[in-house]
Amino acid sequence: MSANALKDLKAVLPKAVYEMVAEALPEKISEARAKEFAQKVAAEYKEMSVEPGESVGLVAAESIGEPGTQMTLDTFHFAGVSEMNVTMGLPRIIEILDGRKNLTTPMMEIYLKKPHSEGEDIKKVALLVKETKLKDIALEFSINVAEGKVEVQLDGSKMRELGITDTVLEKALKFAAKGVGVDIKGDTAVLKLKSKEGGVSDVFRLKEKVKDAFVRGIRGVSQVLPVRKNNEYVILTFGSNLKKVLQLPFVDETRTTTNDVFEIEDTLGVEAARQAIIDEVFKVIETQGLNVDIRHLMLVADVMCADGKVKGITRYGVVRDKASVLARASFETPIKHIINASLYGDIDKLTSVVENVMLNQPVPVGTGLPKLISKSK
Amino acid sequence: MADVYLSGKFVGTVEDGEAFANSMKEERRRGALSENVNVYYASRGDEVHIEAAKGRLRRPLVVVRDGRPMLTSEHVERLGRNELKWSDLVKQGVVEYLDAGEEENALVAFFEEELTPQHTHLELTPLTMFGLVTSLVPYANFNSAQKVNTGSKNQKQAIGFYASNYFIRMDMDVNLLHNPQMPVVKSIMHDISEYAKHPAGQNLVVAVMSYKGYNMEDAIIINRGSIDRGMGRGSYYRPMIAEELRYSGGLVDEVCIPAKDVKGYKSEKDYKFLEEDGIIYPEAQVREGDVVIGKTSPPRFLSSMEQYSLSAETRRESSVSMKHGEEGIIDFVLITENSEGNKLVQVKIRDQRIPEVGDKFSSRHGQKGVVGLIVQESDMPFTASGIRPDLIFSPHSIPTRMTMAHLIELIAGKTGALAGRPVDGTVFDSEPEERIRKELLSLGFRDNGLETVYNGETGEQFQVAIFVGDMYYLRLKHMVANKIHSRARGPIQLLTRQPTEGRAKEGGLRLGEMEKDTFVAHGASMLLKERFDSDRTIVPVCEQCGMVAIYDEYKRRSYCQVCGESNISFIEVSYAFKLILDEFKSLMLYPQLKLKTKY
Asked: How many CB atoms lie within 10 A of CB B24?
């Protein structure tokens, strides 16, 4: 009924905002009232939008950069878990915005499906996620050069605790060391080189190789920590592997996240990566007790993801794609850019801010934007 | 078996390290070993270290034996009668110097009453924990430690009577206080160091109150009448030096009045103070630009043409003259020669420095501040007894700094000034506040230092009593006259045509990268362009090849030197951009300008 009145509004507002407004509209409302309402909303929306010529990028940069100077405390420690601290503060923001592939502290937050989220077998489930290597469940490694074999003294109680059976172990060891005979008897696992001419170095190499043999869990997840969060159990991990974790049957794949933007991009796409950038930066700023409008972060994330893949704000990322030679040269490694520009005969159209400052021309923002147009005869 | 190390080097072993170390110490006290040797036994690792290297930090302590100090009242008496000297006490083993290592073996008592049989040493006085300048802070034990530290730093910057032969010295950049005083509230260190011979401050009447907001943020208000009577007045001395340097080819500088044909000749007016020898006369009043020492140098490059030419070689002007914003009176002139036998002329300039708004003052408690306002004496608030303060100090400077000694000094100074006696404010050993207050009461003043004060402008009584007292204030060497700087137009750099940098070169204040960003963020595009117009140039550009063309002033015609084209347009760019184009060309790059109509 009131849909008619909101028709104009639909053309003005973005879809998500429009839907929110339409939902908020009461059921029983007169046509005239609805129209009046729509006009008011449209006017408000127009009022709030950015004016042409506003330097949004620079304002965003200043709005994030200035509070950045006040940030302190770059790590955050988990009580009780050694070596499990999270990079926070300025180093973390730099890490995200630079688009670094290798994070200093990759972390996941794994939400669980029903029985486990209420605490059932939570410890067991957590250990299923954790990467277990042979050395984690072994007491002693000894080598027998004469017979060309490696004997591993297994920690039976630990294996039981982790729920690793002999068959699982055998399979894992056979996968890790190919061409080696595996024989598990009680608490000893014997690995024997099949080829007869096994020298000392071969046996030794086998021992070193088998130490790091992957037994069970998710690769890359080195620590797990089940915690209670808002009346449900969540597993925090140190180390991240989103793709593999989402395949686990007991994981709630709708809410499980990682702090690695690139993993999100790989598994869920750029749109999700964009949101991850916003969330991760906002989280840092929030914990520092600073107040930055989220729209500045959205703009930065948009710039980083505009090409369909995540790019850092570095000379290898966003800056490389700038059209202006002078603008690129003014930001790190000027010689490289000038040499390349001269080789290819680049043309700088002087359309952006930095170039015009260099030439002392009016910059095309704010009052420098409007131009006088006259008819030529 | 304990290892023995001599100055860090292993020399051997002994059976019982501790006993060995102790016997070494006894030998030293007996005089068999040098008093400069320190021994200590490190029970951890069972090592004996004997230190005799120079440069160790050591401090004196009284030796204690069986809970009794070796220093007796007899020693003190004989010291007083000058029969004994400090070095005698050291020789007798009554007092010894410990280094950082030997201190580890010692148990030191602060006061004699605390002594037990375990103690090995007794502190001479708590004052030994402070340095010379810090000991000059009165009642320092009532201050926060950090302010005691800044207080002693401030004293090092105070202007005073730094040397009694100042008038024949050629010190660089020194100040002299005209009427220095000995502080009323002093410490024992003032006597020991003979502070009266080189005082560095004055006793001022200080009122603690706000005054129209002119003393907020640590500023102070000063009484014009006090300044006229000479408070804080000082002189600033600076030498100017000229040398007759020798160059290759037997050429030499010459101190003289430059002839008019000298390259770079200023004007006759600038040389007016010079006497026949080319040097200024004492007591001449010089201002900026005036030449102090006239000098000419030989031409910089002797070209082969000039060598054989008949015309006389043109010498360069290289006089020493007063810099921008400088003025003063010539104090004295010294003509001598340097170590290479060249003639050396030094001229000392004196400038009277009367306190002005912006000059820095401080008490001895790190309470520094700049003059915020100078008030006519008639407008200054006055007490019931008619006293007008020299200085008004803001009460807001007290709570966060916790400088209690500042307040105690005010009362102590007031009492001392009224009673006509110095007050002892030695750290940990000062005259107690209660006694001073009682004395102040007996002198007919309120014991808490408060006074009824009247508004100097209206004559009305203030609603509250004001804390007024007397304390020692220091004028610090940071003066606006040495720092004030402004520029509208001025010198530019040769290469970039941008303004020079720094006060000495009359430079501009740079509007930097981040400041630029704020203009952009406001969208103030045209204002930004105007700000950066300092190196604006108009350049002719060839429309054909895009290179910078030339304008022939004589023929009133512009053309391109590269392609001969005469279709030239003039564009306005920053000179720095024109410069980078030239640099590109020197790198064999071809930066082409493609012009387009702006509108």
From this structure: 20
Give domain A132-216's CATH architecture.
2-Layer Sandwich (3.30)
ipTM: 0.79
CATH of residue B291's domain is: 2.40.50.150
Does CATH number 1.10.150.390 belong to domain A322-368?
Answer: yes
Domain extent at residue B291:
235-353
Which of B516, B535, B580 has the CB atom closest to A357's CB atom? B516
Query: Who contacts A225 (Cβ-Cβ below 8 Å, separation ≥6)?
Result: A78, A81, A84, A126, A235, A236, A237, A238
Chain A positions touching chain B (beta carbons under 8 Å): 53-55, 58-59, 61-62, 338, 342, 347, 353, 357-369, 371-374
Q: Are B525 and A366 an interchain contact pair (Cβ–Cβ within 8 Å)?
A: yes
pLDDT per residue as tens digits for the range A294-339: 999 999 999 999 999 999 998 888 888 888 999 999 888 899 999 9
CB contact under 8 A, A365 and B525: yes
- Cβ-contact B138, B186 below 8 angstroms: yes
Question: What are B's interface residues with A at a Cβ cutoff of 8 A?
Answer: 516-518, 520-529, 532-533, 535-536, 572-574, 576-577, 580, 584, 589-590, 594, 599
Q: What is the pLDDT of residues B472-503, one digit of tens each?
A: 999 999 999 999 999 999 999 999 999 999 98
Regarding pTM above 0.95, the answer is: no
Task: Measure Cα distances from A195 to A202, B184, B382, B414, B449 in Å.
Answer: 10, 99, 108, 102, 101
Q: What's the CATH fold of domain A54-105+259-321?
A: PTS-regulatory domain, PRD (1.10.1790)
